[in-house]
Amino acid sequence: MLILVLNSGSSSVKYRLFDMTEDKCLAWGIVDRIGARGSVLTQERHDGHKVKLAGEIIDHQQAIEYILAILLSPNHGVVKDRSLIGAVGHRVVHGGEKFTGSTLITPEVMAQLHECIELAPLHNPANIKGIQACHSLMPNLPQVAVFDTAFHHKMPDYAYIYGLPYVLYKKYGVRRYGFHGTSHRYVADRAALMLNRPLNEIKLITCHLGNGCSMAAVDKGVSVDTTMGFTPTEGLLMGTRTGDLDPAALLHIISREEIGVGEANSLINKHSGLLGVSGASNDMREIESEVAANNPRALLALNIFCYRVKKYIGAYAAAMNGLDGVVFTGGIGENSVIVRQKSFEGLGFLGLEFDAELNAVKSKEERFIDRGSKARAMVIPTNEELVIARDTAELVGA
Ligand code: ADP
């Protein structure tokens, strides 16, 4: 069976088409700048054939029509007939407390997804648009929602309840939910295979470091704590997000700068993080170049970034009463030699001894970057789309 995986954002739709008989990705691409001038669709096929088309794409439905057309196109496509696509799997950012696992989309589920919009007003509406567009275009095709939050739903209450009046949790659902769950779940599964041990016997820390960054303490296969919170803003320093911040500091800034909620939201999510501290860039590659050129604020941003990763490794080893392995993934985790090095430095007391030479190897493969320390250090490229495709295939009974 072929499964189409969609990640619908506010102005883009990313997609991948999988052949589930061999878990193979046949084609992947993105429609960008939806609703703006100069929309583009770019696609790459498994055989390396690439195509880029420009045109006007006004909404998500049109974007998905273009995606289907290119996947079926005799010149650029990979599918002969639309009926070969058996289901669509959607990434949905927030499942609240309602969704504790992936689910087949029904009218009741759609109603519940709308209720979750309040929790993720920036992300869930776009995810819902993608689902509605697919329903209009292919009304009989089963669709599945796979949630970023679901993997974290078994956290203990003392890890997810904030120190606010409890009534606010009950009234508004204000608690830690965590995100990137599909990625944490995928790399934890792969790490168990690499360690040749059952997942339900080991203690892992998974570090997803991309534009957004989060870590999870995965104890016997269960996420027992994670750095992102009620929103993706909490925890690690990110490209443009603050990560951990004293809430009273934000109130002070709001009052001194006389800004409103919208501006404060932009400040902590779009103008902070690596970009805010360095003043140079939100992109780790550019931060690394600036550090090489002796830019002190870029060095400060890099140091804060790595210090927080290291601090949470210690915290999560304590949360789990031990540690068998740490996994790095995401664009930064998979590629940045210096971030891994600085984040691991001095952690020998936890039995975590990374190897500088192995760490410096550039590779797209999963690999150990230690020479057999008590707690193993691993780099595992993430594959969230494959998890979505697998969950979808399972739920539609393929
Ligand atoms: P997203 O969270 O949007 O999926 P990615 O996982 O692609 O993002 O991660 C993007 C980040 O990865 C950027 O900060 C980018 O600079 C960083 N990155 C990608 N390649 C490298 C590299 N070779 N060295 C250092 N950082 C890298």
Supply database-style keywords.
alpha/beta, Nucleotidyltransferase, domain 5, 2 domains, eight-stranded mixed β-sheet, six-stranded mixed β-sheet, 15 helices, 14 strands, 38% helix, globular, binds adenosine-5'-diphosphate
Task: Work out the helix count.
Answer: 15
CATH class wording of the largest domain: Alpha Beta
CATH homologous superfamily identity of the largest domain = ATPase, nucleotide binding domain
State the distance separating the first and last CA atoms.
Answer: 7 Å
- Element string (H = helix, E = strand): EEEEEHEEHHEHHHEEEHHHHHEHHHEEH
Radius of gyration: 21 Å
The small molecules bound here are: adenosine-5'-diphosphate
Per DSSP E runs of 2 or more residues, the count of β-strands stands at: 14
Roughly what percent helix? 25-40%
Q: Which whole number gives the mean pLDDT?
A: 97
CATH fold title of the largest domain: Nucleotidyltransferase, domain 5
Low-confidence stretches: none
Structural class: alpha/beta
From the spread of the alpha carbons, the general shape counts as: globular
What strand line-up does the widest sheet have?
A: 5-4-3-2-1-6-8-7
Largest beta-sheet characterization: 8 strands, mixed
What is the second-level CATH architecture of the largest domain?
Answer: 2-Layer Sandwich
